[in-house]
Amino acid sequence: MEQNKKPLTSIGVVDEALPNTLFRVRLEGENEQTLTYLSGRMRMYRIKVLVGDRVEVERDPYGGKGRIVKRL
Question: Which GO terms describe its cellular component (predicted)?
Answer without folding.
Answer: cytosol
